[in-house]
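Q: I'm building a small set of examples for a reading group on sequence design. Run inverse folding on the following structure and report the sequence directly after it, with nothing in between.
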């Protein structure tokens, strides 16, 4: 199959990639809303120009906001690599079954990581979510590296 066909919705694997990539990107974007609603409700800001009222209280450290920010940062460390490697993986023309499992495992593990981080669930729950997602991306990367340098 030509590269142009691989990167089109005629290719079932590309359709799967588009679906899972969009779902996990929306999840990552949701983290901004999660942090923002705490900021608004508790009137905690990040910039001096945002302060309305008590300056002392406006800059206090809030454990829920900090947890949400760490969770968001962890998404940003892991989801963009999945988006890049996953797209290159589509170009290796994997089977539908193999691609489905790679994408599905990554996305489920990232949702699980978020639940484990925000709840919080006892460790090693969060570490497991992180590690399984990372394995899915590394496995796709190995496929790309094998095919990309022939
Ligand atoms: N940047 C991460 C690298 C390692 C990592 O992603 N660990 C996972 C599993 S323990 C995690 O959820 N880390 C917490 C975090 O990034 O805030 C860190 O500093 O912890």
């Amino acid at each position: 199959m030509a590269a142009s066909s691989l990167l089109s919705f005629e290719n079932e694997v590309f359709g799967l990639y588009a679906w899972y990539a969009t779902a996990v990107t929306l999840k990552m974007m949701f983290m901004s809303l999660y942090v923002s609603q705490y900021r608004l409700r508790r009137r905690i800001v990040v910039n001096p120009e945002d302060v309305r009222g008590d300056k002392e209280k406006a800059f206090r450290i809030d454990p829920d906001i900090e947890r949400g920010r760490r969770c968001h940062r962890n998404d940003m460390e892991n989801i963009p690599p999945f988006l890049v490697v996953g797209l290159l993986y589509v170009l290796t023309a994997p089977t539908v079954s193999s691609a489905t499992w790679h994408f599905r495992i990554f996305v489920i593990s990232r949702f699980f990581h978020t639940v484990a981080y925000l709840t919080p669930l006892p460790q090693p729950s969060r570490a497991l979510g992180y590690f399984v997602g990372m394995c899915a991306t590394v496995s796709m990367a190995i496929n790309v590296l094998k095919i990309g340098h022939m």
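The chain has six helices and no strands.
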